[in-house]
Description:
single chain; 269 residues; alpha+beta; Alpha-Beta Plaits; 5-stranded mixed beta sheet; 9 helices; 5 strands; 13% strand
Amino acid sequence: MSRKTFLILLSFLIVPGIGLLDQLSGDDLSLIVLYLVPIILASWQGGRLWGLLVAALAIASWSVSNLALPIHVDLDPSFQHTWDLIEKLIFFALAALSASRMKSYVEAERRKGLVDFATGLPNRRAFVADLAARAGKGPFEVGFIELDGLENLYLERGEAFVEALFKTTAGLCRAVLPTYRFGDERLAFIAAGMSGPAAAASMDRLAERIERHLLEAGAPNLRLKVGVARCPDSEAPSYPSIRKFLEGSMIYLRGKPGNRIETFDFAKV
């Protein structure tokens, strides 16, 4: 018998005993907190269904004991008060812990919804949210990064090779820029203060690292295309307008030979 099966079975076996003890303790002393032990144990080991089954057994055990053994016990008031205090402390602590755990689960799921699992990068939803959050925070740059020629590489080397190549490229970009996975073959980034000679030098170094990686990986025919939109500080562009603008920039760059990193002043189109 596995440990999981043993603990679930144990949860069922101890419930009738708790029901009998609860009845023998009298009407003035509630032992409801003791029922939580097998219910939580069964839920933890077997899931919601087993927890509900043990809870149903607990209700049945209490009902049968209450009907079969109508017992009245006079308790010392100080003992009863102490027990009631302990019981409430346990319930209130469980309520606080459950709410905290539930919030952590919700937050974890929300974060998962903003992450691309293949690369570990923030995804398009995160990109859209962060783009909107840039409003009123000064000038910034937003851009698309593509490896031109991936379509042919899919046919030549297969999907697994291309995914590994793209993942490594994403890691190189992430080390330099706040990078997002925007699509199957496209990365995006949002950065502040990237203009000027220092920014250009940084982008050139990134292009050199990616080109070296492509050569080492056996994909020398791929070319890096980076279109950067320089946005003013007056407003953050809407997602549809910046996407349309950058899509046009990437079409323009794909028509040029070699690696290309070009910056354009954003204008609504």
